[in-house]
Amino acid sequence: MRALWSDQRKLELWLEIEILACEGMAEIGIIPREDAEIIRQKGAFSQEAIAEIEKRTNHDVIAFLENVASYVGEPARWIHRGLTSSDLLDTTLAVQMKESIDLFLRDIELLQEAIAKRAKEHAFTPTMGRSHGIHAEPITFGLKLGVMYDEFSRAKERLLEMRERVSIGMLSGAVGTHAHLDPRIEAYVCQRLGLKPAALSTQILQRDRHAEFMTTVALVGCSIDRWATEFRHLQRTEVLEVEEYFSEGQKGSSAMPHKRNPITGERLCGLARILRGNAMAAMENVALWHERDISHSSVERIIMPDSSSLLDYMLHLLTTLVAGLQIYPENMARNINLTHGLYGSQSVLLALTDRGMARQTAYEAVQRAAMRTWRERSAFSSSLCEEPEVTALLLKDEIEEICSPQKHFAHVAEKLRGVGIDL
Prior knowledge:
The protein is mainly α.
């Protein structure tokens, strides 16, 4: 990813666009075909020389063109004919965004492979589902990871849609009118770069495209943040259902030798904030003066390489975290039992209404039993047996069966298959 956004790669794309434009001009008879061939053969640049020229010109594209001309010779007079700087910059950005998305998609494939592997391992490992941070009803750890897998499937879908919208190039001249550059040349160049020509442009491609790219990147980062946060919570000492891999010789704290901290998850959460901040900067770039101003340019030189490189890194880091995640089923079982079976409250409520009791009456009876269990730390099934309205309809053995956690796992395999994880 760094190489894709490097100055070297940018200049290579600038040169290729200029050469293709000359070849396109030769195709329709605007310039001599032999001159286009010489430009293709001799076209080259020196990054160091361009940097030196730019000190004088204070203009990166002019410095580039001057340097390329020194290699090409007399036919260089055709280079940049009818183009403006943004024709190079924005078409190059389109290629970089498209190729970045291709790398993101590969990264997510690898992440999903790691998620699916762990989901299969723990498809039926019972764990407690939580709402508001409070115990709700049992799920399995594999099902939790299935939700993660599905979330990144949606990330892939968004990126694929985004790939279409950013794969747009332009060579339309100073204000987008093609006054000095036949639209056929734009089409020629874009086709060979794997882009579509813009339907309309000004001096630039409009920045809603770039803002959408950046917000899509940030949204994938939000999903990473969400799961890093989940694993961080599950690693808390009093929960300890999962733990980041802690290698031999690793240290957790400069002061406390016992510490094993969720530093990878914390790093991912912090980096996601940068992606969101950069997305906001990209949205600020959408409103420009008339056919363009240059206020977006300095911002994009920072946020687009940084966010693309960050997301690539974050996806790799999350993959490593998932692959090495230490999972503790015994602690999950311990935590399930902390509430003495209260997770069966809805099952009992529904059983009572199925037997003919009014829902409100059933709710109040089950809640009274639940509050007794909270106070006395007694088994929920025992508390239920002290409610006459409950025992009038349900036998003790029935209550025990109804409160079994197994009923919560009946559809796990089906639901995992539904998101693409075959057991």
